[in-house]
Amino acid sequence: MSSSDRLLLVLHIGFAIFTLGPLTAATMSTPRYIRKRNVTVVRYLHRTTQIYGLGTLGIFLFGLFLAKGDFAQVWLTVSMTLFVVALVLLLIVERDQRKAVHLLDGAGAAAPVAPRPATEAVKGDKEGKGGEERAEAGGGPAAGTTAPVAVAGGADIAQVERGRIAAMSGVVALLWLVILVLMVWN
């Protein structure tokens, strides 16, 4: 094996180690944060998927250069085909992440508000002020008035996207493992 082949092999393995791990972690943890409606984390995981998804192209390119056009070997053809399938599934995962971010942003801006009666006194009110005095002092609504409270519950936001991301990221992780077994076996 020549030194250029060794360099290509090191780059191929290095890109595999440093891109597939974070990519898989980002795609597989996205459904949890969609369920929790944490749009900031989902946005971050979407960006992570985009960056490391582009990085996986380095794995494919260095593998192509390493193969030197010898595609007659079955394990190499199968690995490349599975890799392309995994990239297509990653594009669908990225699309669903983007859509989930959009839906979570929209749900956060349009959260329903329901009135809630305020209590006359707050437990632990050291000053002993009543509701009206506390309202005048800026400490809360007066007794007998209502305070807006966001309603918990309602329809689950981005449920379809969450399910698709969970399923496809699992399939992509299995494809990475099959490719790894094929690479190590040969």
Summarize the structure.
The chain has 5 helices and 2 strands. It is mainly alpha-helical.
Question: What order do the helices and strands follow?
Answer: HHHEHEH
Terminal Cα separation, in Å?
15 Å
How many separate domains? 2
Question: What is the share of helical residues?
Answer: over 70%
| Strand coverage percent | 5-15%
Identify the overall geometry. elongated
Largest sheet: 2 strands, antiparallel
Low-confidence stretches: 120-138, 143-154
The number of strands is: 2
Output the number of helix runs: 5
Q: What value does the average pLDDT take?
A: 82
Structural class: mainly alpha
Rg over C-alpha atoms, rounded to the nearest angstrom: 26 Å
Spatial sequence of strands, sheet with the most strands: 1-2
Please tag this protein with its features.
186 residues; mainly alpha; 2 domains; two-stranded antiparallel ribbon; 2 strands; elongated
Structure description:
Residues about 120-140 and about 145-155 have low confidence and may be disordered. By secondary structure, the chain is mostly helical. α1 (about 5-35) packs antiparallel against α2 (about 40-65), α2 runs antiparallel to α3 and α3 packs antiparallel against α5 (about 160-185). The two termini are about 15 Å apart. It has helices at about 5-35, 40-65, 75-110, 130-135, 160-185, and strands spanning about 115, 145-150. The protein folds into 2 domains: about 5-110 and about 160-185; about 115-150, no CATH class. The longest helix has about 35 residues, at about 75-110. It has a two-stranded antiparallel ribbon with strand order 1-2.
